[in-house]
Structures are given as structure tokens and as C-alpha cells.
Hints:
The chain is α/β, with parallel strands linked by helices. It has 3 domains: 8-95 and 259-338, HUPs (Rossmann fold, 3-Layer(aba) Sandwich); 99-214, Glutamyl-tRNA Synthetase, Domain 3 (Glutamyl-tRNA Synthetase, domain 3, Alpha-Beta Complex), CATH 3.90.800; 341-558, CATH 2.40.240.10. 26% of the residues lie in helices and 23% in strands. It has helices spanning 10-20, 42-57, 76-88, 104-116, 127-134, 151-163, 212-223, 238-248, 270-278, 293-299, 303-313, 324-338, 550-558, and strands at residues 29-32, 61-66, 97-99, 120-123, 172-175, 190-194, 208-210, 227-231, 254-258, 341-342, 344-345, 348-353, 362-367, 377-382, 385-389, 409-412, 417-425, 432-440, 457-458, 460-462, 467-474, 499-507, 519-522, 526-530, 540-546. It has a 7-stranded mixed β-sheet. Strand 2 (61-66), helix 3 and strand 3 form a beta-alpha-beta unit. The two termini are 46 Å apart. The model has no long low-confidence stretch (mean pLDDT 96). It binds one RNA strand through helix 5, strand 6, helix 7, helix 12 and strand 19.
Amino acid sequence: MVEPSKPVDFIREIITEDIKNNKYESRVHTRFPPEPNGYLHIGHAKSICLNFGIANEFKGLCNLRFDDTNPIKEEIEYVESIKEDVRWLGFDWEDRLFYASDYFEQMYRYAAQLIKMGKAYVCDLSADEIREYRGTLYKPGKDSPYRNRSVEENLDLFERLRKGEFPDGSRTLRAKIDMSSGNINMRDPVMYRILHSEHHRTGNKWCIYPMYDYAHCISDSIEGITHSICTLEFEDHRPLYDWFLDQLNVFHPQQIEFARLNLSYTVLSKRRLIQLVQEGHVRGWDDPRMPTISGLRRRGYAPGAIRNFCERIGVAKRDSLVDIELLEYYIREDLNKRAPRVMAVLRPLKVVIINYPENQVEELEAINNPEDPGMGTRKVPFSRVIYIEHDDFREDPPKQFFRLAPGREVRLRYAYYITCVGIVKDEKTGEVVELHCTYDPKTRGGDSPDRRKVKATLHWVSAPHSIEAEVRLYAHLFTKPIPGEESGDFKTDLNPKSLEILKSCCVEPCLADAKPGDRYQFERQGYFCVDPDSIDKKPVFNRTVTLKDTWAKIEKSLK
RNA sequence: UGGGGCGUCGACAAACGGCAAGUCAGGAGAUUUUGGAUCUCCCAUGUGGAGGUUCGAAUCCUCCCGCCCCAGCCA
């Protein structure tokens, strides 16, 4: 069989060409450079798969580097979660865990060098003044009055900046480039700002911190990164990236930009994700409705499925919106092969099998996974009183409804054919609360000797043997493919029904000792994952994703 | 009114001057002890538009149109 070839994207093409031309001695070295100011999400997964994936494919290396140049926003909690998530996704940075803050001293020396070259200067303009002097998109900026200070004065001032002689915001170090450039990033960008703030790694050693544009290219250069892959919004920054490295005449990695991931029915910006958490729209960063890696993990998504998804969506430069159904497809594909099947009744309807002997219990054999016979079989207890799914009975069924109805015979999976012979209703509400059925003893195991057909097979749980469980059903967090597209505020499109909690579900006894993180298929319903909230004798399940549901589609078209 | 990018099916995405891949979604059927899974078939005479070059254009050229990003001492 021919192995399906992996998609070759424009980045891999560039790298292949570079290797051919012996650029960087045919070495490939990438990096994943998160800022530790939030949790990783599925969009980061795309970048992680790209950077680590390329390193693997080209027999190169990929570093994990924290871009920690802003002590005000960054926290140790985030670096720990990021490490865990990258590892969980299946990637290994080995001994190459770095921090931009590791290079602060070197960056300082390079900055001094730029000053000596007359390429950087200390500027006394306030933030507002800098903005004023910068001009606009359509109007060139004008030179700062401090632009032509002598090298000696600049050096002296820069040293005193470091010593902490000046308050926050009073001065900056700026690159001397071109205030009339069409590219605003080149209008004497700030390289260092004064921040008397404790850094999670360097403590109080520094009170000046480098800006991204300056820090990133130097970090890449120091680490010998060959291909510095980032998202499209940094395309405008590439001339600056190149400028610093050219002026300094140091090792010069190549920056390549690709389009970030957008997913329908979800938001993927840190700002909005943090808002969802802080304002309590979700229960935390790892809420199973969140597109964070920790949320997806708790939801039951497997790392391999996420990797398959990231590979399939490809890498390109055009803005795109990936249909979340594609993600769900890969989740199902993965779980279909691996998840053991069990029976669980989410909305129980009591069924008494009136011709089945009282007190009799049978152990029926059930297949754990029809996709993988190696997963074996198990025994499921059957008795006179069982629960079936409320939705599996209709007193007055529409034409395409194949399931149980008055007088109709259906199969109970791995058990017997049953026929509905009576309905018990709540006197006040008229709601169906119990069914009376008869069973055909000759259909034990679910096959009838006379080959007569039934149109439906129902899952069930024996009432006296069932275990009570809580099940949390999740739907998309937002009701619109692009949240906030119409109103301008993504929160107006929050889905009020994104979480439904069912407290008294009945699951089969083999689930008694399920462990948090275990994944199952509840037959005919979906894939479910045991939540860490589970307590002894009261498991909690998260619905990872539903099964494809043809009936739901029919029912919808009926309305 | 400046600079940088991008337009191929409902959604992703290949093609690199020579027959518009593939995946998801959607539709039809087969099969089925999960209305699951699996299998088969259908789904762009056409690549934002108009011209041009060429035996031949999604691909090269010209003009036009549309969309995204940039005016943090954030990354």
C-alpha cells in the first residue's frame, strides 16, 4: 500500500529549496516561541505541529522558547501549562528549553553596539509624543528632537536607563531608521522601554525590557534558528527583523509568515479567551467548551486527532475559516477506532418486560469494539426492568421513525426483541413515564431464528444494575460561525445552551471504576470522557462529540 | 491618502505554461445487531473581473474589483 504523502506547503517548499542550495549548511532549526501570558489553544497547535513537524521531517531541531519580554503580563503559571500542553500534543524539545530573558545581557550589549554605530538613540519623548511624531498611515512622521544626540550622551543615558535612574515611561531607546518610511514599523521603533517591574525569571535585575521586534530576531539569531515561522501580521515587521540583524552583522535566520487558524463557531484570540474566563462565561481555561489545549484535553480530544487535523488544514498565506466539523471529523475518526463501546441511558424511560421472570438476571455478551475485535467482549446484566432512552419511544411516531412505538417490535442490543404493549402516563402531565413490553425468548442475543427484521436496535441498561452518573453535554460555545460578526461584540453570540447537565443518567455497571480521562463510546450517542470531577460511585462524563446522527437530520428536515 | 499581503467548489486546499488533485460538508445508493462505522457513485466546462501573450493560461503580462494586516513604551 502506498503511504499517502503529506501535504507539501509553501514553507516546506522553501526549506527544501534552501537545503538544496546548501543555505545554512542545509541545517533546519525552528522554534515555537509562545509568550507566557495565556493558555495555548488550537491555533497554537497548528503552529506547534508546523514547527516541530518540520524539524522532524527534515531531521532538524525545534526549540521551545518563551518570549518573556513583558514582565507585566507574564506569569510562571502560564509557562508550566504551555510546557504541559506541548508535551501532551506529542512533541519534545529535549534540552532546548529557552527564554528570551536568557539573552537580556547579550541584547543589551548589541543595543550599545547599535548606539556606537549611530543606529540607536535614547529618546525623551513621552508615549503620547512618540505617537504624535510617528505620523499616520498616510502622513510621514517627523524626527524626534533627541534623534541626533551624540554617541557618548546616548551611551551614558542608556547605561543610566539600565541603572534605574529614570521613571517608567520617561525615556526609551529607539532604532534610528526612517521617520518617513511607508512602513510604520521602520519609523524609529522603540527597542527598550523602562519597566520597574519584577520579572518571573530575572527578578529585579532589569528595569528596562526589550521590545518584541528587537528581542525576537536576536533570540532567533543566538539560537541559530534557520527558519523563523510566524503568522501573517508580522509580515510588516520582517524589514525590521532583517534590519537589526543586518546592522549587527550576525547570524540571520529567515522569517516566513503563514495564515493563523480561524475556526468556525469559536474565538481564538487571547484577549477574548481571557475575557471568557475572567467574566465567568466558562468555568476556567480548561472548561471543555474552550478551544484551549487544556479544554480540548478535558473534553476528551486525543492529541493524535488534533495533529491529524492540523496536518489536513494545510499551511498557506490566505485568510481562512476552517469549518469546525472538520475538527470533529478527526476526533470521531480517532475515537471510532479506539474507544470501547458501552451502553448508557442519558434520559431514562423505565421499561417493564412483563413476561420476563421476576428476579431473573442474565449475563449477555457484548462486543467492546466492532472496529477492533482484539478489544474483546464483556458481560452485561439483563433483567425484567430496564431503562431505555426517552427519545427512543414515540407514542405517535412520524413515518421515518424506526424506533419503539405502541405495538412495534425493536431489538435491544445484544439482548432480545421486545414489543411495546402498554404505556403508563403521569396522570397530571400526561407524560409517558413507563412502558410495558413483552420479549421473545427465542431472540436471545439479538437474533431471531425466523430471520424477521426489526428496523431499530436500542441501547438499554438494566435498572437494578445501573450506575448513576452525571453527563455534561456540550454544544458550540457560539451560535454564529464568526462570533460578533454582525453585532461587533462576540459575546452577544454566546450560546446559552452550550452546556447541558444531566444528573441522573444510567450507565452500565462496567463503568463503575472508570478513571478520569478514560474515553468511551456510548452506543448510538457519542464519545464521552470521564471528567476529573468524578467522585467514587458517581462518575461524571463529558460528551466529547456526538456520533453522526442521520435521524436528527431527518427530524430537523421534518420540522 | 501610505506600506505589506491575499483571491481556485459551501469550508479547507493542490496545481509551478499541457486533462482543475484530495479532505470535510452536502446528495444518492449498498451494507449493517449502533439511523454509528464501512463501501460505491454524484458534487468547479472553470480559478474575483476584463483585456492581452501563446498551438495551449488558474499559472505569464496589463488594467480593474474585492478582502485582510499595520498608526502599543503588547506579542
